[in-house]
Structures are given as structure tokens and as C-alpha cells.
Amino acid sequence: xxxxxxxxxxxxxxxxxxxxxxxxxxxxxxxxxxxxxxxxxxxxxxxxxxxxxxxxxxxxxxxxxxxxxxxxxxxxxxxxxxxxxxxxxxxxxxxxxxxxxxxxxxxxxxxxxxxxxxxxxxxxxxxxxxxxxxxxxxxxxxxxxxxxxxxxxxxxxxxxxxxxxxxxxxxxxxxxxxxxxxxxxxxxxxxxxxxxxxxxxxxxxxxxxxxxxxxxxxxxxxxxxxxxxxxxxxxxxxxx
Length: 240
Hints:
The radius of gyration is 17 Å and the shape is globular. It contains seven helices and eight strands. The chain has an eight-stranded mixed beta sheet, with helices on both faces. With 240 residues, it is of the alpha/beta class. A hairpin with a 4-residue loop joins strand 1 (22-30) and strand 2 (35-43). 31% of the residues lie in helices and 22% in strands. Helix 2 (64-75) packs across helix 7 and helix 4 (97-114) crosses helix 5 (127-137). The chain has a single domain, classed as 3-Layer(aba) Sandwich (Rossmann fold).
């Protein structure tokens, strides 16, 4: 199965991203809703970790942004398990909190059953990452060794707040936050005291000039490294 890398990745990533992937598509049952949702598992030949990726609120698992994240992680020998939330699968209407958390639990269990030899990390982009962190705070995903949170939505656009971070202090596993410096849903000033409360359990890495969708400003970005390559490199180092 070809993996969409996005126009901005096609010329900047190394040839490693174009190596064949072990890819499988399958459905799994969400316990709370009794409905089945789709998923994509991609496993590099020398994978030593697997990240379960939930998508954002406005797009599903095949959106180029999440596909780019998966492809860049693959180039760093990190397997990924992308999945749909039921509201995307059925085409509208947001799920309840219980169904959302049940979907995350079911996805982590499914990924673990398919790749039992790989340590599991959970997370996702924006909404998917935030809800995964909520599941972790309620001790619903005990098999996860850590959380990888891409563009964590600290607050809604134009409404600065740390309410969405209140549960983070309850999380007992390490967390990696990958936030863009132009993300309008993530205030560095507001998150700094939150980060201090989390202590050594949390790692924050800023992606220069990246917005919430990881789009960057080429003229002012100090690094020539593609933002997805940077994100995957940092994740690789953090997991390692």
C-alpha cells in the first residue's frame, strides 16, 4: 500500500521513507459502542517500538498530516497503528467521552495483540492525543509505556486556558509533547507552569515556526530539517 507523504515531504525526506512497509488494514471492535472501526498498521523491518496514533477532531486516520507522521516514524524504525474514531467512521456527530475513551483502549489492545513483541506508546495528533492522555490519567491503558502527543491542543483558538491540562498531573507514565511555536491552540507561556508541575515525567520539544498542522515558515525557520523528520528524530531519541 503506498503511503501519502505530502508534497512538502516528497523532496525533503531521505530515501528511507520510500522503503517498502509491512502494512495491513483491519477493523477492530470498540467495546463501549459495539461498533467496528478501521485501522492501519505499519511495521518497519527493524521496529523496536509501536506508537498508537489517534487522529484530530476534523480528519481521519488517512489525513496527510497523520500519514506523514506515520511515515516519518517508520523511517526511524518505529511502527505505527492508526485508527478511526467512530464519529469519523460513520461520517458525522461527535462521540461521547465514554465511547472515545473506549475506542482508545480498544485500539491499544488491538495494537498490542497484533505486535505483542513491541513496547507500546500511545498518543496522536491534537484531539487524538488529548483524549489519549485523558485515558492514561484514568489508568485505562496500562500497557502503554509512554505518551507521544503531537500538537497537544492546550486550549481552543482564541480562548487561552490550561483547563485541558488539568488531568496531566495524574498520568504516571512519561510524556513527550511536540508543539509548534506558531500553534494557536498551544500557549508556551501558559504551558510553562504546567510543565514544571509535571517535572521529569514530561518532555516538551518545540518545532520552530510550525503551526497546529505542522506547517512551517520556510523563510524564517532556522533549521533546514523537515518538520516531520525533526519530530520523528526527537521521538526516536525520546523512546530510545
